[in-house]
Design brief:
Largest sheet: 8 strands, antiparallel
Number of helices: 15
Helix content: 25-40%
Radius of gyration: 28 Å
Distance between the termini: 16 Å
Shape: globular
């Protein structure tokens, strides 16, 4: 789970070094109803000398040389890695600690990790089981399965296919995503019916990752099966695959709770409590690394034990561009039905990533090679080191065992420079909120694209594993590759203009669209900063001028209505600054600890929004009154000019508050 997802466990067992065969899954057990519930990636530029043989001995040796240093240097508590091949576990390695205080090492068979959004693969598997059973239709309006209504957008309903490909068009839902108190557990029905996020894109047109929509899919499974979601996946997925440590239940059952790895921001920082993922089907799974290996094998072996071969094939090879090509940016990675592509070195790879606050995970399947790779960490580490390690580990794994066999093309320098210039500007991520206060991130989180002195494309916010800004080289028209890595970036051109772009890691579920001029940080950020300075100087001038007049014994120079407007303007300038400061403090705290984005913050949110509406609107009125009197009374030109600057400053503050959700008058977000 992101904006910026995942958790898992993998550890070593000597008995597994030679490879462990997983038994054929038993027949699917019957459900017990509950009556209470009415294209391959372009090869990288650098060519490897040749692949290593993917054997238990080689992978164990390679991992043992890779991960211990990565954990220590990154301040990461522990990690688990499992690798499967041809239906066998060929590596199950644990590194570091599941519990530092108890000096308890990670055990790949018993230590539970939280794989975050990798949990979604279990939810999508459950959906496909119900499709296979004829109870669900991927292209039918989901309202047919619900006891509440999802409003249409431009006459178009939401379908399960759109939900599984993150193209239903929902804005981001942040409230009650991950909390710490077990009392915060909510029913799926209660969580979903409380608020429906607005659909900000037409159906099927724009990838926008949605945890809320995934929870909706889990609720639909619950509805059509008549079984609580947690129970359903236990009976229909975990039991057939003998995944004895896997559970979506929160808190964990008593028999599993002692096996749970402890989460840490960094290994050197205090332990954190068990995280409650409120939209459970989107990320509540807890499981050992070895159980996740069983899940990988099932999907690599044509859905063995949980899906028919035809359904498994549909889930793994139904890219979105077959349904709506307009929503994609060829040749970047695409969204399948739940899985997304992480193609590398000319190989097809389907995957999912996942993050909670403290656990960070990735799962990658090489279907043609019958190979699966899973890694999870129980802390983010120094400067988010776990994110870097999991990404680089997958790429290095692919380079070692499945190296590239071809070379990239090139675009001539003159054309490449022209294409780079067409990309310049401010861009907004499609995964965003638009109707509440998190929309302020749409101002301060805009992605800037520029060019360097040699005309090459530069995206300052995209950095490589070492932290340096990535260098992009155009390898085909409007397709760039990181000079020092695998990542590709590509743009969509309409009528000779770049209208959308993305890069491989997020392209299946997020894109960047050009920011409208009215909302561009290119002018709004400096305008807002200048406005706050004007308001600050206006507020400070009042006591400063009073002191000067007192010493020199000179009159203020205005009286009557003009004096009232003068004083009211200073008061409203100060009040505006206080409200802005309140928002700044709240937003900084809220996004540094996502658990604050909950019902417990509703009071302060209402206070800030009501105060903002009164103060920001009132400040414009008072400043306008003061400006009118200043010009009418024939005051000095400096005072006339300053009165206009104050009016302009209050208008800018009000516009930002209105455009970016600070006076939206809602606590749903």
């Amino acid at each position: 789970m992101r904006i910026k997802g995942l958790v898992a466990t993998l550890a070593a067992m000597a008995a597994l070094i030679g490879g462990v065969s997983l038994a054929q899954a038993p027949d699917t057990p019957p459900l017990t109803p509950d009556p209470a519930i009415t294209a391959p990636a372009t090869p990288v530029t650098a060519l490897a000398e040749g692949p290593h043989a993917l054997t238990a001995a080689d992978i164990d040796s390679w991992l043992d040389g890779y991960l211990p240093y990565a954990l220590h240097s990154g301040d990461i508590a522990g990690a688990v890695v499992t690798v499967v091949k041809d239906g066998q576990v060929i590596a199950a390695r644990g590194y570091g600690y599941g519990d530092i205080a108890k000096r308890q090492p990670v055990d790949p068979a018993r230590t539970l990790f939280r794989p975050g959004s990798v949990s979604k693969l279990v939810t999508w598997t459950a959906v496909m089981q119900q499709v296979e059973a004829g109870k669900l239709d991927l292209d039918r309006d989901v309202n047919a399965y619900l006891d509440f209504r999802i409003p249409p957008r431009n006459g178009q309903p939401v379908t399960l296919r759109q939900i599984m490909t993150h193209t239903a068009g929902f804005e981001e839902a942040m409230k009650d995503l991950i909390l710490d108190d077990p009392k915060d557990v909510q029913s799926l029905r209660g969580y979903l019916k409380r608020w429906t996020p607005r659909r900000i894109y037409d159906a099927g047109t724009t990838p926008a990752y949605s945890n809320w929509a995934t929870a909706l899919a889990g609720y639909i499974v619950e509805r059509v099966s008549g079984v609580p979601f947690d129970t359903y996946v236990e009976q229909r997925i975990f039991a057939p695959l003998d995944m004895q440590t896997a559970s979506f239940r929160q808190p964990l059952p008593a028999k599993l709770a002692p096996l749970m790895a402890v989460g840490y921001p960094r290994a050197s920082e205090p332990a954190q409590p068990f995280e409650i993922v409120v939209p459970g089907p989107a990320g509540a799974l807890s499981a050992s690394g070895l159980d996740m290996a069983k899940f990988m094998i099932a999907h690599l072996e044509n859905g063995r034990g949980i899906l028919s071969p035809a359904t498994a094939a549909m889930m793994q090879d139904s890219p979105l561009d077959r349904v709506n090509p307009a929503s994609l940016i060829p040749p970047l990675n695409r969204m399948e039905l739940g899985f997304f592509e992480t193609n590398i070195n000319g190989r097809d790879v389907i995957a999912h990533l996942g993050d909670t606050n403290n656990f960070h995970t990735s799962l990658h399947l090489f279907p043609a090679e019958h190979v699966g790779f899973y890694v999870s960490f129980n802390s983010a580490g120094r400067e988010g080191a776990a994110h870097v390690v999991r990404g680089q580990l997958f790429q290095d794994f692919a380079d070692r065992y499945f190296p590239a066999t071809g070379r990239d093309g090139r675009v001539d320098p003159e054309t490449s420079a022209e294409h780079a210039r067409m990309m310049v500007g401010h861009w907004a991520n499609s995964r965003r909120s638009e109707t509440a206060f998190p929309a302020i991130l749409n101002l301060f989180g805009q992605t800037v694209v520029t060019v360097d002195g040699e005309g090459r494309l530069v995206v300052p916010s995209l950095t490589g594993p070492g932290g340096a800004v990535q260098r992009w080289e155009e390898i085909a028209p409007f397709v760039w590759r990181d000079v020092n890595g695998h990542d590709r970036l590509a743009a969509k051109v309409v009528d000779g203009k770049v209208v959308r772009w993305s890069f491989d890691l997020i392209a299946p579920f997020m894109v960047f669209d050009r920011v409208p001029a009215s909302l561009s940080a290119a002018w709004l950020t400096p305008a807002l900063c200048a406005s706050l300075v004007v308001l600050l100087l206006t507020a400070l001038y009042w006591p400063a001028s009073w002191l000067l007049r007192r010493r020199s014994k000179t009159p203020i120079g205005v009286s009557g209505a003009a004096l009232k407007a003068y004083r009211a303007t200073r008061i409203m300038a100060l009040a505006s600054l206080v409200v802005v400061a309140g928002w700044a403090i709240f937003i900084t705290r809220a996004f540094s600890s996502i658990s604050l984005l909950s019902d417990g913050s509703d009071g302060i949110l209402w206070l800030l929004q009501i105060a903002g509406a009164i103060v920001f609107v009132g400040a414009v009125g008072i400043a306008g009154w003061n400006a009118w009197l200043s010009w009418r009374d024939g005051r000095r030109w400096t005072r006339k000019l300053w009165s206009l600057l104050v009016l302009l400053a209050t208008l800018v503050v009000l516009y930002v508050a209105w455009a970016f959700g600070l006076i939206a008058m809602t606590v749903n977000y």
